[in-house]
Amino acid sequence: MLIPHYLHQLKLCARNRTLTTAKSLHAQIVKLGIAQCSPLANTLVNVYGKCGSASHALQLFDEMPQRDHIAWASVLTALNQANLSGKTLSVFTSSNGLRPDDFVYSALVKACANLGTIKHGKQVHGNFIVSEYSHDDVVKSSLVDMYAKCDLVDSAKAVFDSIRVKNTISWTAMVSGFAKSGRKEEALELFRRIPVKNLYSWTALISGFVQSGKGLEAFSVFIEMRREKVDILDPLVLSSIVGACANLAASIAGRQVHGLVIALGFDSCVFISNALIDMYAKCSDVVAAKDIFSRMRHRDVVSWTSLIVGMAQHGQAENAMALYDDMVSHGVKPNEVTFVGLIYACSHVGFVAKGRELFQSMTKDYKIRPSLQHYTCLLDLLGRSGLLDEAENLIHSMPFPPDEPTWAALLSACKRQGQGQMGVRIADYLLSSFKPKDPSTYILLSNIYASASLWGKVSEARRKLGDMEVRKDPGYSSVEVRKETEVFYAGETSHPLKHEIFGLLKEFEEEMRRRKGYVPDTSWILHDMDEQEKEKLLFWHSERSAVAYGLLKAVQGTPIRIVKNLRVCGDCHVVLKHISEITEREIIVRDATRYHHFKGGKCSCNDFW
DNA sequence: TTAGGGTTAG
Q1: Same domain for A487 and A577?
Q2: Would you give the DSSP letter of residue A182?
Q3: What is the pLDDT of residues A61-111, one digit of tens each?
Q4: Nucleotides of strand B lying closer than 7 angstroms to a protein CB
Q5: Structural domain span for residue A419
Q6: Are A487 and A572 part of one and the same domain?
Q7: Is A423 found in the same domain as A318?
Q8: CA of A306 to C1' of B7 (A)
Q9: First and final CA of chain A: distance in angstroms?
């Protein structure tokens, strides 16, 4: 009677993740001398895994005099659950020829999925196919998940089609694969065919859409889910939908979702609070982000990092540094994302020594290998501070081939520092052998050639940009005024308030020309047309109409918040600085890559974008 | 004993 009793108690521990109770039960089992009973030992391994203690599971496994397939499957699963899938594969390899059963196959496939090692994954799949378990639907479900996680959605679909009895789990794995890879129609079609949907299926579709940048689609599915009255028993879907608000910079929707989070009682969940910090920061409301952070009772590295990155992006470098010191003194270890934020902050205020120090500390104190992004951030910092040779040396010494943002960082540094010769040398290389894909790189190239009077090359850069223009999205900006969002497209002249908007912008332009010596910088327009036409295009850039509308309609004294799909051009950047000074209003613009807080004639990006 | 959904950069 003792053994069934302990098995029952241990299963309760596994369900409730109570490690202390598991340890005390383990001690009693040892004292009673029944620890060698293999169902008990295997269940203990399993419980330790579920409670997140891989070391206990592994120790127990090592001490087993005999190991059956259940023991192997339990320890491999425990290692997967503790996020140690590398160890899963090495423990299996050390088995010296264990023939996997269906359970072991599942654990191995999951390990490959977690690690993203498709080479191993295909090997395991091959062995599975020729094994006596080759018809097992559970293993096939994990294979669907593995291929989906490794971006081989068609392979996932092939395995999915071979599953004889599909259940909600296998359907969900496939829906998740399609949604994450941006295959919207297939994801939706498959989702509609799921006979019994649960919260996992809805979450898979919604989060997949968010991850593939389809925030609006995610929202419409979420609304449908609410309409269907699906019980939100756990908060995972909420963190995804908060993320959708963040990516869309949809602050009104974001606040509503925040309200829902509170109403459902998930506001003390760390994951959700982290997502909310990020959402408020991305909606340019750093005060609200700080408020969420300060109310949290438990914070993890993502909580600290989200706020540090938010501050860095909004030009609050000193605050970001102070928060980092605070984080370290709280004993929280920074991760690779923390350092991206910190070095980014340094580059915006020109803290060269601090940036170099952080870059070194990352490797020395925290054993984090710098990624290409860390190098690009450091390169930005060096280039911006005029240390162009050091920046170029860094490009040659880094252990990665430089990508387009890296070259763009060096090029824009050359332009800013007036290093025409170096700029032309790099531009020549890019144009002849690199094949940039970002239109803004061609604008940069064209500007560099123009300042060196190399007109032939200017037109070559323009021609290449022209070739890709067909695919370019039309520019638009949105502005939120009194809980309503108004969208303006570039060149749009059909708005009901067009006369008021035109009048206000004309007034600003005249004042800027008279008092600030403003001359429109038409080098940002690369179409072939006369100067007057170019100035007209600049005048109707969507962010200007949006700002004018905001100034006409928003509550006096409140900041004007703009979200733009493309990057703000250099001329609009100058104009918005002037407008913020003339009107004494704060204008906050989130463009495709950066945040700009215009206030009193200055911008938080320090004219670096 | 095995399979599905979540947060920070870009």
Answers
A1: yes
A2: T
A3: 998 888 899 999 999 999 998 889 999 999 999 988 889 999 999 999 999
A4: 1-10
A5: 406-469
A6: yes
A7: no
A8: 9
A9: 72
